[in-house]
Amino acid sequence: MRVIHAADLHIDSPLRGLGRIEGAPVDDIRLATRRAFTRLVDTCLEDQAALLILAGDVFDGEWRDFNTGLFFVRELARLRDVGTRVVMVRGNHDAESVLARHIPLPEHVHTFPAEAAGTLELPALGLAVHGQSYGNRSVEDNLAEFYPDRRRDLVNIGVLHTNAIGAAEHSNYAPCTVQQLVRRGYDYWALGHVHKRSILHADPWVVYPGNLQGRHAHETGPRGCTVLDIDNLKIRSVAHRDLDVLRWAEISLAAASAADTDDLLGTLRMRLQQIVFEAGGRPVLARVLVDGATHLHARLAAHPEPFAAQTRAIAADLGDVWIEQVRFRTRPPAETEHGELLALHQALRDELEALAADPQRLAEYGPALAPLGALVAPYLGLRPDDPERLAARLPEVEALLLGLLAPDLPHPRPPAHLPPQDPAAIRPSEHPEVQ
Questions:
Q1: Average pLDDT over residues 238-258
Q2: pLDDT of residue 165 exceeding 90
Q3: Distances from the Cα of 193 to the Cαs of 168, 180, 366, in angstroms?
Q4: I need a surface site. Which of 105, 174, 282, 399 has the fewest CB within 10 A?
Q5: Where is the composition biased (Pro residues) (predicted)?
Q6: Which region among 33-47, 89-103, 211-225 has the lowest average model confidence (pLDDT)?
Q7: For the ranges 101-105, 127-131, 402-406, 417-421, which has the lowest average pLDDT?
Q8: Domain 2-242 CATH superfamily
């Protein structure tokens, strides 16, 4: 028997950044989430799935086009005709969706209630499915703690829309831990909410299938559903199935190792060719990031347009590939920064040498130090801004200032002609607190 687990369909969710993509088939791309759901239903039919599990966020928030809901119902009707059951929970986006509240679903679709977790027993399939929907967008309670006990002599599946891993990119709704899920004793947890596919635990299985279709440049790589094969009340295999109809990619180009922009563009071409191959005929939308310390920094910062145009030309040459955006995060080479610090250090040392050689020049700092000297003199019993004491401590001043400027750089020894510190000038025996 085959069970298919999907989540986060976000049907008709607007894909971000399409307006920036020159020449892309924007109208076709906008239908990507619909086409991915159609592929999900096709997969259920081809695999003769007994059950489809939808773990929340079928719709996309306040989207009010009822054609979206009608499309969803028509696709589900295809499953009814072959006897495939559907179970679903409503996630945070469904909870605020007008469509989810007002579109009646076919009789072969079971939606779990929001008031408390419930159980749907399907003895003919050997399954017990447990789930709870969201009653509102922001669910902060740990729903998993109150899921029903497992049913004996059945494969138990829990369906939950949750942030079980504390993912920062997703709101912390229905928070729980993997161990809390494992302790329920179910055979499989069908999770939703986190859009990246991940297997959090095996035996028992705790799985995020990821969303069906990447919707922007941060949802890269293959997207799809998870397929379970069950035999003799045992889950025999759990596998991912790609269903996305277009593929997002993010390409980072290391500028530090590039001799020139041709090197960067050559690397980009090879990376795009690999991504196109892995996409298996799907259109590819790519974001390019040029990053690192490089001698090309000034050129790229002043004139980014020619490089961006060349990246788009390479994409056009490869076929169904479009560059969504080119970003630059370059900086001057590290040796330049290092050199600037060394120059600053040298200027500081030169000034201190001049002060040591010219008492009159050192005395010119007196007015600036006078307020501080007057403030601490009553506690020290001396004037720390006294020119003789200042001259005696110039080597310490140099070491302190160089350390504050750049503690990671080696500091040369003070010049030999700086006067050595005179311990008597500090009189530690009289003022032990000054060390």
A1: 95
A2: no
A3: 12, 17, 66
A4: 399
A5: 412-422
A6: 89-103
A7: 417-421
A8: Metallo-dependent phosphatases (3.60.21.10)
How buried is residue 227: exposed, middle or buried, by Cβ count under 10 Å (0-12/13-18/19+)? buried
State how far the Cα of 95 lies from the Cα of 97, in Å rounded to an integer. 6
Place 152 in a pLDDT band, splitting at 50, 70 and 90.
Answer: very high
CA within 13 Å, CB half, 186: 30
Which residue carries 């790519």 as its tokens?
A: 286
Q: How far is CA 8 from CA 190, 194, 409, 419, in A?
A: 12, 8, 51, 73
| Nearest-angstrom CA–CA distance, 119 and 131 | 7
**Domain parsing of the chain, residue ranges:** 2-242, 247-332, 350-425
Residue indicated by tokens 């390479």: 314
Question: In whole angstroms, what is the distance from residue 290 CA to residue 262 CA?
Answer: 13
